[in-house]
């Protein structure tokens, strides 16, 4: 029935999903941690594209409250906006949501309540890990075998336009192993010596040429094998580990950029919520959603 979360029937996909949940043991319970909606896409196509949405963060920088992805934006949980944004893309036939550890059941209920009209995209929920990269790795592990293009998208970027999602997916499908949406940097950026003394002014060591800098967003798109290899081989902490493309770069694989979008900004601090509410209100007034 459209709009009802269903268990995946026993199939090769089912086997992949259940196998994938076990590495961390962090799912609420193996029998109940993976839920899906009926899919519409052509899984036999040459490039089945799935989105992994890490949504397991606490949102410490946003301040006290529920996990960030579950906080309301325009009266609807941020995660729901993010899932809708990815599910609206024609390229995406499966969305894997990586929810806060121990809260997968709540996430499933929440998506069930809000995604009734999205009867065309399969949505799976698994539990996340202690870090963003742990959560992404658990999301990748939950992908069925026929997926060969993966978009990794922060739940914390709920307002990404569908055109940005499509552009990233199209570039991977056209042959790029790793694709990142990006914008020019508007502030001048200073490099400092890390690990300075607390309370002391930080000395600046360099001012990188701003014209050569880009601020990168999500969704970041990958050939599945490249993304999987990066998460297997590259240390998930330290230099280059704050985004998935950085890990792919460490493999020596080329990463290319497509234009990002201002509205794909990351909700990190309280002022970002003010902006997100304003963008959403404008969209609802002009586009009706
Ligand atoms: N253990 C974690 C940490 C983060 N994320 C996800 O990664 C994305 C980007 O992370 P960020 O914006 O830093 O979110 P939080 O970690 O929640 O924020 P904070 O660092 O302020 O706590 C978010 O969608 C977040 O839910 C995740 O899935 N698992
Ligand atoms: C992946 C990312 O959104 C790209 O800009 C960013 O690196 C995530 O950083 P965070 O500190 O985990 O929010």
TrEMBL record:
Biased composition (Low complexity): 22-33
Site feature location: Transition state stabilizer: 61, 68
UniProt keyword Ribosomal protein present: no
Polar residues biased stretches: 12-21
Site (Positions MEP for the nucleophilic attack): 210, 266
Annotated Pfam families: IspD
InterPro entries, per the entry: IspD, IspD/TarI, IspD/TarI_cytidylyltransf_bact, ISPD_synthase_CS, Nucleotide-diphossugar_trans
CDD domains in the record: CDP-ME_synthetase (cd02516)
UniProt-annotated stretches for the region Disordered: 1-48
EC number, UniProt record: 2.7.7.60
Record field: catalytic activity: 2-C-methyl-D-erythritol 4-phosphate + CTP + H(+) = 4-CDP-2-C-methyl-D-erythritol + diphosphate
Origin superkingdom: Bacteria
Associated pathway: Isoprenoid biosynthesis; isopentenyl diphosphate biosynthesis via DXP pathway; isopentenyl diphosphate from 1-deoxy-D-xylulose 5-phosphate: step 2/6
GO molecular function, one term: nucleotidyltransferase activity
Alphabetized UniProt keyword annotations: Isoprene biosynthesis, Nucleotidyltransferase, Transferase
Family to which the UniProt record says this protein belongs: Belongs to the IspD/TarI cytidylyltransferase family. IspD subfamily.
Function recorded in the entry: Catalyzes the formation of 4-diphosphocytidyl-2-C-methyl-D-erythritol from CTP and 2-C-methyl-D-erythritol 4-phosphate (MEP).
The protein, known as: 2-C-methyl-D-erythritol 4-phosphate cytidylyltransferase
UniProt organism field: Streptomyces synnematoformans
Gene from which this protein is expressed: ispD
